[in-house]
Structures are given as structure tokens and as C-alpha cells.
Amino acid sequence: MKTNLVPWKNIPLVKKRESRWEQQRQKILLASAHLFWQKGFLGTSINDIAKATKLNKAIVYYYFKNKAYLLYEIMSGILRGLIDQGIQISNSGFSSRAKLEALIENHIKWQASNYGFSGIGYMERKNLPPKLLRDYICLRDEYEKFFHETIKEGIGCGDFECTDAKLACLFSLGLVNSIILWYKPDGNLSPEKIASKASQFIFGGLKARQE
Question: Are 151 and 160 within 8 A, CB to CB?
Fold first, then answer.
């Protein structure tokens, strides 16, 4: 099952509006995401962000309370984009096997097409203050639920022979999330090939029934 990938520029870091206020906010978020990936969260200053956006530092603070809130908005925006796509897949009416294959493919192809940005949450979440970290984890759990519920559904209808949906979900997510650590845009394996191999591996562990 092929899915339409949402490119980075369309990921809803903030709700799309035409107002200048939102355009400025989006500009700051995107520049910050570039810098956090290139230099790391701790290595990036508000001055760096102001310089990259050609805005006064006071304007950056006008839109965002501090650097941690900028990091949270970037990370949560990424998850919201994946959640939106997860909802579409979940409501597709396809079999549990087809849904899981689409979730795997969408996740891996999204990581590949947004190389750099997609690793920010994995690498930098430790720098979120406790409250923002809790909010981020709630969003992460909401996204992970698509995998868990799809696997659980597959077990219930006999598509998958494994019996522990929670553990299978953790293994599956561990695999797809780890790909960003070794994937190279100029490597020999295309995102489609990686997604296909990952699906085969995960379905093997689930003892998936052939369609």
C-alpha cells in the first residue's frame, strides 16, 4: 500500500494561516530546526536564530518564551504531522496488515525525506523541561497508539500470530525509529527499499498471514 508523503515544508509546526504573525513564527521555527540539527540545541543560541532569520532577538522572544519552547514546538509539530497521517491510515478501511505496512512505509519515507529534522526529537528531547517533556510524551504516545492498535487488531482477526501486542509495538517502533541513525540520503538503499525490508522483518516477527 503506497501512501502520500507530506514534505517537511508542509508539516504543520503551526496551523497554517496567511497572517504575517504566523509567517514570522513559521520562519523562526524552521530556522531553529535547521540550527538545532546542525549545531545541537545546546550549541545554538537565540542570537544564532535571530541572525539566521534576520530578525531582532527581541522579536524572537516575542514569539517564543525561550529556546526550550522553540524546541518543543518543533518536536511537537513533527509528531502532529505524523499523527495526522496516522489518522488517515487508521481510518482507511484496509486490513490490519495493510495498515501496518502503510504506517511503517510512511514513517520511514518521512524520516528519509526530512533527513536531519526527523532526528531532533530523538536527539534533543532530553533538553526539554519536565512539563514540556510530559506534553511531548503524550503526543508520542498518541502516535505510537496507531501501531499498537493496528497490531492488536491484527492479532484479534488472525492476521498476526504473535500474542503480545504491546511488546510487538515496541519492537516495531524501535526498528523504524533507529533507521534515522544510519540512513544516508546518498546511500545505496532507497527509502522505499528500506521500508519494504523493514516491513518484511516486522511481519516475520509477527508471523503475519500472507494476503
Answer: yes
- Residues 27-68 have pLDDT tens digits of 999 999 999 989 999 999 999 999 999 999 999 999 999 999
CB 102 within 8 A of CB 89: yes
- Whether residue 196 contacts residue 102, with contact meaning beta carbons closer than 8 Å, is answered with no
pLDDT at 18: 57
Cell of 120: 531532533
CB burial of 125-147 (b: ≥16 within 10 Å; e: otherwise) equals bebbeeebbeebeebbeebbebb
Separation CA 3–CA 195 (nearest Å)? 12
Q: Whole-number mean pLDDT of the chain?
A: 88
Q: What is the pLDDT of residues 196-205, one digit of tens each?
A: 999 999 999 9
Q: At residue 176, does pLDDT exceed 70? A: yes
| Helix, strand, coil share of the chain (percent; to 5) | 70, 0, 25
Contacts of residue 149, Cβ cutoff 8 Å, sequence gap at least 6: 90
Strand runs labelled E in 10-163:
none
Domain boundaries, the chain: 8-206
Q: How far apart are CA 174 and CA 180, in angstroms?
A: 11
Rounded to an integer, what is the distance from CA 55 to the centroid of its chain?
Answer: 28
d(CA 135, CA 16): 22
Residues 34 and 52 sit within 8 Å (Cβ to Cβ): yes
User: pTM higher than 0.85 for the full model?
Assistant: no
Q: What is the CATH number of domain 8-206?
A: 1.10.357.10
